[in-house]
Amino acid sequence: MMTICESNVAKIEAICKEYNCDKGELINVLHQTQNTFGYLPEDVQEIIAENLQTSLAQVYGVVSFYSFFTMIPKGKHPVNICKGTACYVRGAEKIIDEFKTLLDINIGETTADEKFSLSSLRCIGACGLAPVVLIGDKVYGRVTLDSVKEILDEYQ
């Protein structure tokens, strides 16, 4: 759980003020806040709800509905593995298993050193490169079991 100190409260309030504390700007406020803190724990959501004069349930509903928002901290290097049809058929599950083994975490978890987090996606639209792995904004195509370690080594 994130500790909300006065300076962090001030940052959240400033973000809300940038959007005139308009509850219609909730998604924009959430995006900017997540970009600032890396995730949106409950105490951050409470401050946003207060500043936008909306319910915590409304804020939580938006955060939990959209997959790009997270309530848990992500690793410095988020690893996303595509599980769309083309990637799945070309071995995405085995690629996921290799990442899980090498990172010693499961889907939805972050390594103890907070360096990597592991997620899967439905489709990123790069079917010709299947199976595809995203680390941050970098796309790795035609990933093989042997290349997983090489990919991770780039970030060590």
From TrEMBL:
The keyword Transport does not apply. Binds 1 [2Fe-2S] cluster. Its cofactor is [2Fe-2S] cluster. Signal peptide: none annotated. This is NAD(P)H-dependent oxidoreductase subunit E. [2Fe-2S] cluster binds at C82, C87, C123, C127. Pfam families: 2Fe-2S_thioredx. The lineage of its organism: Bacteria, Pseudomonadati, Bacteroidota, Flavobacteriia, Flavobacteriales. CDD domains: TRX_Fd_NuoE. Keywords: 2Fe-2S, Iron, Iron-sulfur, Metal-binding. Transmembrane segments: none annotated. The keyword Electron transport does not apply.
